[in-house]
Amino acid sequence: MYAQMVTSEGKAPGEDLSPEEQAFQDRIDAGERIEPRDWMPEGYRKTLVRQIGQHAHSEIVGQLPEGNWITRAPTLERKAILIAKVQDEAGHGLYLYSAAETLGVSRDELLEKLHTGRMKYSSIFNYPTLNWADIGAVGWLVDGAAIMNQVPLQRTSYGPYARAMVRICKEESFHQRQGYSIMMKMAQGTAAQKAMAQDALDRFWYPSLMMFGPSDAESVHSAQNMAWKIKINTNDELRQKFVDQTVPQAEFLGLTVPDETLAWNDEKGGYDFAEPDWEEFFEVLRGNGPCNEERLGARVAAWEEGAWFRDGLSAYADKAEARRNAQVAAE
Amino acid sequence: MALDEELQADPLFAGQSGAAFEWLCRIGDSTLILGHRVSEWCGHAPVLEEDIALANTALDLIGHTQMWLGLAAEVEGQGRSADDLAYRRDAMAFRNIKLVELPKGDMGLTVMRGFLFDAFHFELLTRLTASKSPRVAEIAAKALKEVSYHLERSSDLVVRLGDGSAESHRRMQAALDHLWPYCGEMFWGDAVDDAMDAADIAPHPAELRDAWDAAVQDVLGEATLQRPETRLDVHLGGKTGRHTEHLGYVLAEMQFLPRAYPDASW
Ligand SMILES: [Fe+2]
Ligand SMILES: [Fe+2]
Asked: Would you call A189 and B106 a contact, using CB atoms and an 8 Å cutoff?
């Protein structure tokens, strides 16, 4: 998922709620949507800002690994599809920053936190895209994992977030199908193409499983976020669902999931599979992933090198307003 | 039979198709290379709205390329596709103008180049909608909708950045001064254009010059930018395959996969 390990600002389950807080919780329990003007506990607001902000950052940083192949896409059609996809991701960022703005935090404030490392984006975007099949693997696995998390979030308690998710989910499932179509072409292609496809799956499998975050069945943060319906399923539930959906797709492609322990478990009606290396995950979050420096560096450079552009536009807006005012005064 | 008749009715397919092929490549290669340069901004623009808008422009230009080079390949009749033309020709066979192959530079350069090209592109497509070739007219009509929007957007940005801060003004003027000597190639023509003109397929590019001048002058004036005194036609040659050093690198990057794996399909 694009928001990982969102710490909750709420009270622990069992702690007493004030009458206001109780009324708020009752609304959520009754399935009502919370809208920007409604009263909400400060913890709910802060937690949502953190989650939506992280999600928005993931969308815009997520442009980079795929953008890396736009100029090298092997056909005009693939190039067009990839540009459209990266453009969609920027659009997702825009919807999400707008949703965060309804909670009283501006896009610039959130970006400032991203640029100074005080807010995170999904660990997955710190992995490199090394061959063309990676563009297939990212659509298939990364957008696929994002969908797992985001489909339930269409029912999240905060109205603007839920509505953003509805729009985003439609496009994400498109992305996933396009990614799978690249994988299909590669897996059915020449020996060299098949090798690229397998290599992509080998490298993206575990980082995709990490997207859901470590097990949080015991986490108090998770419990509070679930009570608020900011989080709908546990990380393990979503990861299991993802594996169960993805393994047959890999088989259909004729590719091998890089997990020797992978086996169907009749009893639980799902696959048993190996956990990703959580040590690696925490290292990536600490900034030590293969591409952390490039990704954040690229965003910071875009922002800093674009300062004159933004300043120029606001200088024009100021002048235009002054001209309008002078005109009105003269009349 | 119906297809044959249609082809015969289209002057593009009549007589000497060599000139038509060349002419179509000049347009299609220009939209391809400009689309490539614009797409380099994906994920790196100064504001999110620009990321979206630039991707949109690149996407339109690649779409136009598919149509123009697709038609060029048909006219050529050698069984090549738009992808073959884009991915399997070397620099000396590319027919784009030099203006579009220059590196993307800063946003000032990207915006200014977009504007100077859009103003030309808009005039060209407007005229092409009346082409005697139904195929050309059809593509032009489709592309014109998008290019009208490109021109509207780039004109607006040139005005706002030119008449913005001292720094944005300085950068826009620098971009204009740098690009100006490349603009003349848009209006340069040879026997290829004479043939297209004679068959009423396309106007001679020199005929577009006055309208371009007027449109550019309008916007530069509003943007408080100085029209350069330098010659417009210093850097010619792209249309006949004599390019800048930059194009080779664009192609090396763009064509890498089909070149490295010639028997693969993607
Ligand atoms: Fe997205
Ligand atoms: Fe996506």
From this structure: no
* Reduced DSSP (H G I as helix, E B as strand, rest coil) percent helix, strand, coil of chain A, to 5: 70, 0, 30
Cα A178 to middle of ligand 2, angstroms: 10
Is residue A328 less than 8 Å (CB to CB) from chain B? no
Q: Are strands A263-265 and A270-272 parallel, antiparallel or unpaired?
A: antiparallel
Chains A, B: CB pairs < 8 Å? 150
pTM of structure? 0.96
Q: Residue A264: phi, psi to the nearest 5? A: -70, 135
How does pLDDT run across B105-136, given as a tens digit for each residue? 999 999 999 999 999 999 999 999 999 999 99
Distances from the Cα of B165 to the Cα of A256, A308, B157, B176, B227, angstroms: 57, 8, 13, 16, 19
| CATH class of this structure's domain B17-260 | mainly alpha
Tens of pLDDT, residue by residue over A117-135, are: 999 999 999 999 999 999 9
Q: For A101-118, b where at least 16 C-beta lie within 10 A, e where not — what string?
A: bbbebebeebbebbbeee
Q: Are A44 and A10 in contact (CB under 8 A)?
A: yes
Question: What ipTM describes this predicted complex?
Answer: 0.96
Cα(A37)–Cα(A102) distance, integer angstroms? 9
Task: Tell how far the Cα of A88 is from the centroid of ligand 2, in angstroms.
Answer: 7
Query: Which residues of A fall within a CB distance of 8 Å from B168?
Result: 308-309, 311-313, 315-316
Give how far B65 is from chain A: nearest CA, Å. 8
A312 touches chain B (CB under 8 A): yes
Å between B163 CA and nearest CA of chain A: 6
For helices A42-61 and A220-227, give the axis angle rounded to 10 degrees: 100
